[in-house]
Amino acid sequence: MTAIQGHSRADSRTAKGQSRTSSAADWSPTSWRSRPALQMPVYPDAAVLANTDEDAGLQAQVEKLFRDRAELA
């Protein structure tokens, strides 16, 4: 099984053992990137997961082609 690498629950604690808290003042559209990933899914088949990303890219290209075609009509 494949798990996306992230941080464990212990990583979300400060050196004194206290939970990290955040406030609205700490928030920004990209602030989630600095937070630990605590609930990461486990995927039984890494190859299927990799193909999902490729399929999403292909789907986006197909949708763009259809939009472009509709604009020309």
Short description:
The model is unreliable at 6-18 (pLDDT under 50). This protein has one helix spanning 46-72; strands spanning 2-3, 42-43. A two-stranded antiparallel sheet has the order 1-2.
What would you say this structure looks like, in words?
- 37% of the residues lie in helices and 5% in strands.
- It has a two-stranded antiparallel sheet.
- It has one helix at 46-72, and strands at 2-3, 42-43.
- The chain is built from 1 helix and 2 strands, in the order ββα.
- With 73 residues, the protein is mainly α.
> Which series of helices and strands comes N to C?
EEH
Strand order of the largest sheet: 1-2
User: What's the total number of strands?
Assistant: 2
Major β-sheet annotation: 2 strands, antiparallel
- Oligomeric category: single chain
- The backbone outline, from C-alpha atoms, is flat
Enumerate how many helices there are, as a single number.
Answer: 1
Distance between the ends: 48 Å
Name the average pLDDT: 75
Measured as a percent range, the helix fraction is: 25-40%
Structural class, from helix and strand content?
mainly alpha
Uncertain segments are 6-18
Radius of gyration: 20 Å
Give the percentage of residues in beta strands.
5-15%
